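Entry 14. Ran structure prediction on the chain below.
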Amino acid sequence: MNTRITVERPPIHLIVDEADTLTNLALAAEHRHPAVAELLLAELARATLHDAGTLPPSTVSMNCHVEFLDAANGSSRTLQLVYPGEADIAAHRISILTPVGVGLIGLQQGQVISWPDRSGRDRELAVVRVTAASSEQAADTEPILGAAS
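Output, structure tokens:
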């Protein structure tokens, strides 16, 4: 018998405008990346939405820099969460349309989430530090719905 234990995920918080953009992005990616699109839509559905100025401090949002621990291998990584057209793993910019990107969005510093990786195994991701994107950088970044992740 295969038994799977369901762990309650921590609450997440998103900016209203980003949630709208991410919903459109997930819907556009349903055929190319069905598993990630489904995870993103589920996270968007359970998020508490805020105006940009009322997002709780140290919350992972688009274009922010986030340091997190991956309990699967004990490694600490710092990356920037970006839209698919801006992704560049060599520059530590990871697309929201990746399992790690979806798992981190909306979490706050200190939160831990059990999240599936690309192979479907659950991993614990712990947010260590969140640094907001500069307002200039956020304004210059536009989501490209047809871009590859």
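The longest strand covers residues 122-131. Will compare against last week's run tomorrow.
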